[in-house]
Design a protein that fits this description.
The complex is a heterodimer of chains A (100) and B (506).
Chain A lengths: L3 H42 L8 H6 L9 H5 L3 H4 L20
Chain B lengths: L5 H13 L2 H13 L2 H6 L12 E7 L3 H12 L8 E7 L6 H12 L3 E5 L7 H15 L4 E4 L5 E2 L3 H6 L7 E10 L6 H24 L10 E4 H6 L11 H11 L3 E12 L5 H21 L16 H11 L1 H18 L1 H29 L1 H13 L3 H11 L1 H15 L3 H31 L7 H12 L1 H17 L23
Parallel strand pairs in B: 1-2, 1-4, 2-3, 6-8
Antiparallel strand pairs in B: 4-7, 5-8, 6-7
Helix pairs in contact in B: 1-13, 2-8, 2-12, 2-14, 4-5, 8-14, 8-15, 11-20, 13-14, 13-18, 14-15, 14-16, 16-17, 18-19, 18-20
The chains are: A mainly alpha (100), B alpha/beta (506).
Chain lengths: 100, 506
């Protein structure tokens, strides 16, 4: 082993460099998570799918063009079930649907 | 009061979201840990550290296959030779230790000292105390490094730990223990990822908070004067002697510091049975520590380190995680059966929160330990289990999930009534999965015993149930065993000597 003081300095500068890189990655991490949250919010709340064709509209009058999280939620047949009016075939009280 | 009383409903909603508390704590830790680098960069005190006499204490009970490698590694550490001694405390081993050691002593004398107990097998703490009494009597050592016989230190690690003693407030330092099995199994990769989250991320955060929960058993560097202040002995009344030491040091008014750059490599269990045995010991030790320090929790005015509310939150979030998960499941089912109109919304936000934190933790590991991330990214993705991961994506993007579900149901051509029944069964399955996952992962451990196909079946079940759920099943078992006053006999983790510096990262 070389001089103690030199060793301490060597380690100090080396570990500082490593931690600088970790700090840069942490900044990217925070930016990435914020970006993901923003994109997810936009995708699930504000992006409107294309309007349904006439034929589709006949079959599922409320199934598409959901514009809010609440409406999108209703499209999950396996999850919701139960008594709530559902916009897909076979789920809950869907007597208001016009069947094909 | 009827079951639909608003009081019960609100209580159930709160209980569901209480299930996310452990994950929220993890998220806060990731965010705090991301500021650690800035603190580290501004700390120049470490450069002024003076060298101290260090006694390395290696307890060994039937560890003959790994002794040569460990002693060689310790002797080659970058540290002044005249300030480093290695004490191998032979716990009355009945294997070839007695044949291996004389040769090693000849080779490494006077740096290596071999102490042999007449009666062994009582546990690590008893073995350590045998060596510590001799070292303290000699009065040469200024710091003591407690380690394990199978742990390999990287050459700068001791220097990196010792330099923190430049700060008189720091009484003990621990290192980053990484999984180093080579060749390892799929399980070792899960453990490697778990260690990155529990140490590289969590302990960095706790450096900032100012309280550490545990000095890693294989890397405990203690000032001798602090060790004397806490009685000069290691606690023998619990199965978590390293955690008790950590608590005692902080109770004495000193800080415990985690040095992330000081990397040491350890061999971890290769099977679920081995992991179960090791973690059950840890889990039971943690229950014992919780009760032993019952007068400390949340009393920050008396115990500034251990009594802090955030420390209590981190400690109990882990200890009570399975209980919170089961309560969340029960509440979710209750809401689903009673008030279906908003059950899915609650379910969805529960899993969205879990999903965001899951991604945050993965990203946190990548930020602080990219080498481990590269080795274990698949295990990181599978950590919650395949089904939980699917539920996260369903919760986040219900639209595409619904379309896929509809497509599958359409393909079966089932009647509307059957479809309705499947919808109900599916929703109930998803609502109870949080707890069922714990059972499935427990079955992964029991299925290891099945002849011929046991290894494959247990691996598949662990992938389905999740490694995180497996840890929860161990916590449940440790609480149950404590309540039933099960045996507290020390169970040694079996090692094969398959450990290398660099492990599977090479």
């Amino acid at each position: 082993m070389t001089d103690w003081g030199e060793e301490m300095s060597r380690l100090w500068f080396r570990d500082r460099a490593l931690e600088s890189k970790a700090a840069a990655r942490a900044a990217v991490l925070i930016f990435g998570v914020v970006l993901f949250a923003v994109l997810w919010t936009i995708l699930t709340n504000f992006v409107t799918p294309p309007p349904p064709s006439n034929e589709e509209e006949d079959q599922l009058p409320q199934a598409s063009a959901y514009t809010s999280v609440e409406q999108a939620t209703r499209k999950v047949p396996l999850i919701v079930g139960g008594e709530r009016p559902l916009p897909f075939r076979g789920g809950g009280d869907n007597s208001h649907h016009k069947r094909a | 009061m009827s079951p639909s009383n608003p009081f019960f409903v609100i209580l159930a909603i709160i209980t569901v979201f209480a299930g996310v508390i452990p994950l929220l704590v993890a998220a806060v830790q990731v965010l705090i840990a991301s500021t650690f680098s800035l603190r580290y960069l501004s700390n120049s005190k470490m450069r002024t550290a003076a060298p101290v006499n260090v006694a390395i204490v290696i307890p060994a009970w039937n560890e003959a296959p790994v002794l040569r490698k460990t002693v060689q590694q310790m002797a080659s550490l970058r540290y002044p030779k005249n300030q480093l001694r290695i004490y191998l405390i032979d716990d009355a081993s009945t294997d070839e230790t007695g044949e291996v050691m004389p040769g090693l002593v000849d080779e490494f004398a006077p740096q290596l000292v071999w102490l042999r107990r007449e009666k062994g097998g009582e546990g690590k703490a008893h073995t350590l105390n045998y060596g510590l009494s001799r070292i303290l009597e000699e009065g040469w050592a200024e710091a003591i490094l407690i380690t394990d016989a199978d742990v390999l230190y990287t050459e700068d690690s001791l220097l990196q730990m010792v330099r923190h003693f430049a700060d008189p407030q720091i009484g003990a330092v621990t290192a980053y223990v990484k999984e180093g099995s080579e060749p390892g199994t799929y399980l070792n990769k899960f453990i490697a990822y778990e260690y990155a989250t529990a140490q590289a991320v969590s302990r960095r955060a706790m450096n900032i908070v100012g309280t550490q929960a545990c000095l890693a058993g294989g890397a405990q560097l203690l000032r001798v004067d602090v060790l004397r202040q806490i009685g000069g002995r290691i606690d023998t009344t619990t199965l978590a002697e390293d955690t008790v030491t950590t608590f005692n040091v902080q109770e004495a008014g000193y800080r415990v510091y985690f040095e992330p750059s000081a990397v040491v490599w350890a061999e971890e269990p290769h099977t679920l049975k081995g992991l179960w045995g090791q973690r059950l010991r840890w889990g039971r030790g943690n229950v014992q520590v919780t009760l032993k320090f019952k007068n400390v929790w949340l009393r920050w005015w008396k115990h500034p380190h251990l009594g802090s509310p955030f420390f209590a939150l981190t400690w109990f979030a882990i200890l009570l995680q399975p209980v919170l998960m089961i309560l969340a499941t029960v509440s979710l089912v209750y809401i689903r059966l009673l008030e279906d109109s908003y059950a899915f919304t609650i379910f969805r936000w529960l899993w969205i929160l879990s999903g965001v934190i899951y991604l945050l933790v993965i990203a946190g590991v990548w930020a602080v330990d990219p080498a481990t991330f590269r080795r274990t990214w698949k295990e990181a993705v599978l950590f919650p289990g395949v089904i939980s991961t699917m539920l996260i994506w369903i919760a986040m993007f219900p639209g595409p999930a619904a379309a896929a579900g509809d497509m599958v149901l359409d393909a079966t051509g089932m009647s509307d009534q059957t479809r309705e029944q499947w919808a109900f069964a599916g929703s109930m399955f998803m609502y109870v999965w949080l707890s069922v996952a714990i059972l499935v992962s427990y079955l992964a451990k029991t299925s290891e015993r099945i002849p011929y196909v046991g290894g494959f079946v247990s691996r598949v079940l662990l992938w389905i149930g999740g490694y995180g759920a497996f840890l929860c099943s161990i916590t449940i078992a440790s609480i149950v065993m404590h309540v039933r006053k099960g045996s507290t006999h020390w169970v040694k983790t079996e090692k094969s000597g398959q450990v290398m510096v660099g492990g599977g990262e090479k």
